[in-house]
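Today's session is about reading a structure prediction critically. Students often jump straight to the picture, but the first step is always the sequence itself: look for stretches that repeat, for charged clusters, for runs of hydrophobic residues. Only then move on to the predicted structure, which in these notes is written as discrete structure tokens rather than atom positions. Here is the chain we will use throughout the hour.
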Amino acid sequence: MGLNKRPNHKGRQKLGVNIVFPLGTLSPSLKTDSWSSEARRAYIGCYVICSSYSHALRKVGSLKYTPYLEECALTLRRESSLPSDEILIHFVRLIHHAENVCDTFGYDSTHSVPHIPEEQLQFYVRSFNATLDSITAQIPPFLAKNTMLATYILLVSAYTHEIGLHGLSAQPSTLSIPRTTILIDCLGAVKKVLDTVANLGDADFRNLLGFNWARVHYTLNLAIELSLGIESPSWSLESVRGIVALESYIDIFIKRLEQHSDMVHKKHGDGDWFSFLAAQWAGLRRNYVEGMRRRGVGMIGEEQRVVGFEGWMGLGEMDFMPNEWFWMTQEGGM
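Below is the predicted structure for this chain, in token form.
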């Protein structure tokens, strides 16, 4: 799309950019008065959306952080009277932090995440946690209860601690104390994300955007990986399910998705993103329940599947949206 390139002269006129710079070069570090407010918001919005999808779905991000993003966000916060501009700087910083996590751990690798020694792993996680705490401390009290922001802080924490899942032995073995701590913290962050989404009001739930749903999809997959992806005598699946009974969360989500699907105006035979999500997460639920049963965990009240177990592909094989619903914007209204 060329979002990582400087706009040409015609494009600059549309965006309100008057400065002259060479074509085809990377996004500039310009004076903050060189772009209009609309252009700054568009740049930040593209970065937030593209990065959210790439981090959640293990894709290589083509729109990387530049210092100009922070300059744009700070200028908007300082000069704009729109309440929504107050929050942009915090999303830029959080997503930049997630980008650093991704680059450090190689989450977007086309093969497997590189092995990191235990001591170095612990150092990285502590360092990233301290940075996240510092970013969070800069959020003013009146934004602290913003659902989108609070949820993303938790998700970045889970994203950081996901590294504990990588580099595990192919054979069942005892987990080290540092790695176990990382995995427990990851599980705790996952639970908080799922609790937050499950407790959203109807309007907030219905108005989540595509990249928000991609984050929820990532969290569900991460919960499955924390259950079915670890084989160790020191990692109890019963205890994991005691913290995150994933089938119960998915049941709540599917029920609410189906309710909202009935409210979407659509042509005869057309689908919608709510019903698509419900169907996809129902498949995740079936695999999770059957996988847990095969690992010897009693799933009371769950019927035995007739068809074969499809297996769990792992975080590296996630996919989410068909192209026609990639952005998940409403066409027919509610």
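Discussion point for the tutorial: The chain has a mean pLDDT of 79.
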